[in-house]
Design goal:
The protein contains 1 helix and 10 strands. By secondary structure, it is mainly beta. It has one domain (5-111): SET domain (Beta-clip-like), CATH 2.170.270. The longest helix is centred in the C-terminal third of the chain and has 7 residues, at 105-111. The relative contact order is 0.26.
Length: 112
């Protein structure tokens, strides 16, 4: 299976993840993969924290695949399914577009 994405230098921050082909709204682009860790996102930039519906921390996952390079955007082209960690396109994505998702309100507030 040919890769659908690639890692390259980002105009947003450091390295980023980019589309090799077009994606339609609703299409699954890929999945965040990793291993459980005791580190938090404050300790390492490639750690994703997973919470339950009550806001309780379930686990921290250290990204090991290319999807750890997705950068934050307040108007992202991806959303993530918190249970499966699959990224889905929220609008049309063209070849060469940088893939982004909204890290959350706390991250956005820290940036401001």
């Amino acid at each position: 299976m040919a890769a659908k994405v690639y890692v390259s230098n980002s105009g947003i921050h450091g390295r980023g993840l980019f589309a090799k082909r077009s994606f339609k709204p609703g299409e699954i682009v890929g999945r965040y993969t990793g291993r459980k860790t005791r580190l938090s996102s404050e300790d390492h930039p490639h750690v994703m924290e997973r919470y339950d519906e009550d806001g309780q921390l379930l686990e921290c996952v250290m990204g090991v695949g290319d999807f750890r390079f997705i950068n934050h955007n307040s108007n992202p082209n991806l959303e993530i399914d918190e249970e499966t960690l699959e990224f889905r396109a929220v609008r049309h994505i063209g070849p060469g577009d940088e893939l982004t998702w909204y890290y959350g309100d706390e991250f956005e507030a820290d940036r401001g």
